[in-house]
Amino acid sequence: MIYWDHAASTPPYEDIIRTLTEVMDKHYGNPSSIHQLGGDAVKLIKRSREVCANALYVKPTEIIFTSGATEANNLAIKGAALQYMSRGKHLITTMVEHASVYESFLQLQQWGFEVTFLPVDSHGCVRLESITAAIRKDTILVSIMHVNNEMGAIQPIDVIGQEIKRCNALTLFHVDGVQGFGKVPVDLKTWGVDLYTLSAHKFRGPKGTGLLYVREGLKLMPLLTGGSQEFGLRAGTENTPHLVAMAKAMRMASEGQPNFTKKVSIQRNRILGFIRNIEGLHLHSNEFGAPHIVQFSFPGMKSEVLMHTLELQGMLVSTRSACSSKQTAPSRVLLSMGLSHQEASSGIRISLGDSHTEEEISQLEHALRAAVEQLHPLLEQGRN
Ligand code: PMP
Q1: Predicted-assembly ipTM surpassing the 0.95 threshold
Q2: Cα 230 to ligand 1 centroid, rounded to whole Å
Q3: Per the domain annotation, does 381 fall within a domain?
Q4: Which domain holds residue 66?
Q5: What residues act catalytically?
Q6: Rounded distance between C-alpha atoms, residue 321 and residue 151, angstroms
Q7: Residues framing ligand 1 (Cβ under 6 A)
Q8: How much is the pTM?
């Protein structure tokens, strides 16, 4: 089997698994305990926070550990909305966000907030003019993802960040950075980002672990109350083994990013090249998108059929974002880019990691050509 679903989750490095089990085994004390084992855990967490902060060039006190990006996105969006609602109740996001962002905004709408969902162009990018036009005096938060998880579009976060602050200096800017970190350069300070979300399992760390960068001086309404962990922003016993493992993976991802981008972009371009040449396939990603994501469709053929045909040939691809793959409606993201219902129902995502070989790419091409050839007669039958 060859795994082409790195945007859904990545295989943890062996070293990360070793670290995780070692910390679980030896440093099981509760960091809130005031004896020696508790103290050991506190030191490990402190060091992990420093490593994560260094990878983002921010301060350790600006890092809040969470149970993953879903929680970090919920905390950023609902926490900011509830904290700053006395300034205004208008929020802005896009139509192509991950479910953990999109659904948070839908919930806030039910709670009486007004939400503007910005459209995207045919490449999946938000137009700067639409952001400028949407920002008002009472806009308290804008949330825009860096890299789209379904088709790899990269939003110009630096320009967007500057424009938001130019229009309203008090409007907070949250970025879901899950698919961008380690894949493309990240520069929070220059971008003017106030809140930034990451998930460890997207950069070869453990699942169920992530973080939220919260710019110094910002307040959020905590969603989980209880103990005073994470500077009072997220109650609950810290997950020491996972945090230590995430920090290690984060340092590796950050240091490895330039090589990742270079190597994987070349492989991505090869894949884009052969998909363009297979009759019947429509390509939706391009060379300007994230290096690790390729999205295409085989109009008329349900995504699941092509996915399973490829699986029988040993190729594990994805129909869409893993969190939405059990939904039957066509992808909201692809429909927002202007794709037809038929195209959006037949989307396939190939996502690359740092260890694919040229030989594996050749095998993927071979499998894809064979699968399309095998399925073509079914399309013809469907038309008759
Ligand atoms: N945002 C994006 C862009 C994602 O791709 C994902 C994972 N599919 C998440 C948020 C949620 O991450 P987690 O699995 O850590 O909850």
Answers
A1: yes
A2: 21
A3: no
A4: 14-252
A5: 323
A6: 9
A7: 68-70, 73, 98, 100, 145, 149, 176, 178-179, 199, 210, 321-323
A8: 0.96
